Amino acid sequence: MTLTARSLRSTVPPEGTSGFLLAIVILGVMLALAVLVGWQLSVLTAGAFPKAPPYMILVYVLGLLAVMTPFTARLFPWISNWYYLLPALVFLGAFTILPVVLTVNYAFTNYSAQNSGMPDSGVRAEATLNEGRNVVTLKEIPEEGGLTSYLKCQATTCAGDTIVLYDEEASVPFKAQIASVAGNAVTLAQPVPASLPVTQVTRVNRYQYIGLQNFQEIFGKATEALWPVFLWTVIFAFSTVVLNALAGLTLGILLYNKRLKGRTIYRTLLILPWAVPSIISIQMWKALFDQQYGIVNKTMGLLGIIAIPWLNDPLWAKIAVILVNLWLGFPYMMTATISALATINDDLYEAASIDGASRWQQITSITLPLLRSSFTPILLSTFAFNFNNFGIIYLLTQGKPPVEGQVSTAGATDILLSWGYNTAFASSGGQNFALASAIALIIFFLTLAISMVNFKAAGVFEEARK
Fold it and tell me: Membrane-spanning residues where (predicted)?
């Protein structure tokens, strides 16, 4: 269908994919304009009224949407039929598109706890403002090296850099542009508003674009973190899929046998690990695996077996993670097997029995081949899930124990995602969000590559072409 100016002003919405995409574009442009204009208005408001609350941007955006919605409906009468997509687009932009854009952006910067773009509250200095309200004089510079060093200026004159001003309460920071510095005095490009009584100043810990330095750092120390963590991530995900699939298939086939007495009771008992919240289960296993007080080691001690350092030794910690993940994952595979078996016609088994096929031959020749199409997407999605299974690593071991020769943020049981988390949030005093963003990009491309290989090996692309 060809879209014309006349059809766009019709009350009848355009049909087909082109009409849907056009509606998405119009609504997206409307939201983007509302956000951009609202952001600019909030910046102007903060400049005129330093104590204005930060949520003013939301007020402006909502007000602009309230005005733009009927205006857009006048231009395109049919668009009102698509307004139900607005909440979805808002959440998609806020919780999917924006985080992705920020992650990609930060990966090429030096953004961290120290270089955050925010005022440095740890080095505030007392200051006074002249009558013209354009010269700030510091009583004492907190650091050596003069104002240029203290303010971390990009040029010796500090022209164009930023200084942060505070009142007595130091509740709302006011950013002012610097014209020049001399001694302890900072000349501002514009006078400070009369509504702000300046008593303190500080610098902005700015961040800047550094190109590919984060990626160079990661690959430059690949043997100390990237390759060991990546190898363990693949082993963890692959072994989990294999063990869970074998356990789930075996139990599912056994419990599907209609001649098995009490199979409903067995199903209920075996599905409990899936029904109990994983947070509770993992904490329970953490206590069971305690080297000194855990029931596992106490029971083994009664049998004359020495205590195993389940969570304190790199190898045994990895085994513990795989075992706990098996406990959490096999009920899902078992349930999927039972559901898939219900789709197989019983006549096939009867015919095989008449032909003299044993129970094992029926499983290998009928059950497993017919389960392949059902289990292929399940196995692929399970591998992708466990490749980024942050929860069990964080709750059971926190990535520990540490490994000699590896960086401190990459423990023995850390997978790529938990390593990125440690780098961004768990590094004591030096959270490196930019490096973690670079790790996130590497994880994305590795996951994409592995998924493509899995899809190719499983014949998913060939099935899609049929």
Answer: 20-43, 55-76, 83-108, 229-256, 268-289, 319-344, 378-396, 433-455
